[in-house]
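#lab-general

N.A. 3:47 PM
ok so I finally got the sequence cleaned up, no stray characters, all 229 residues accounted for. can someone with queue access submit it? mine expired

B.Y. 3:52 PM
send it over

N.A. 3:53 PM
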Amino acid sequence: MNFIKQNSEERMNEPSLEEKKAKAQQDIRDLRSKINSLDENSIDLIIGKARTHYAWQNREVSDEMVKKLYEVVAQGSTHFNSQPGRFVFIKSSEAKKRLETGLKPANVKKAMTAPLTVIIAYDTKFWEKLPELFPLDDKTGMFRDKEAFAEKIAFRNSTLQGAYLMLTARAMGLDAGPMSGFEPNIIDEEFFPNSTFKCNFLCNIGFGDESAIFHKLPRLSFDEACRIV
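B.Y. 4:20 PM
back already:
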């Protein structure tokens, strides 16, 4: 009885929706008063001059750093705050051997020598958590019994979360090496048996060995890739 009373009192003391919105708006104002943009060096670090890495220094990425990495990634925007991304951080020798069974030959050495290889996956039933993650309105009906649509949204937004992971890793002083050379069915069978999770792509994370980098390849110009309408 006391437990029920305590929970009721806690709910009564929770801020109202308007109070939460006001605080969120003020938080943004406060943030922008401290920093309004990154300098050129910071932009170069995370994307401008950042490189895909293929070789790695023999330096561990601590579990604490991995947890911090995810905590930042989880703040990134997703459709209805759905957060369909699921991440498996492959670190142990045993897990690496399991991963190797699904890798294309060209990617074996890259992954086996990386401190971490992350399986960026997605949950096809992500929408079941929407009442918790998006309590403003019930959106579950948009996805229930609509498997193809739900998977499209899950794939798209887990890809976004994978990009957040790469940028965050670089911002934290790490390097990233995304890979798509693998057999999805093998990875899914090995790491997500009898599950609603599916593999999207892989990304090696660690401290890169610059000796394996080659020159940066051409990018499309603005006029080739963009239009302002």
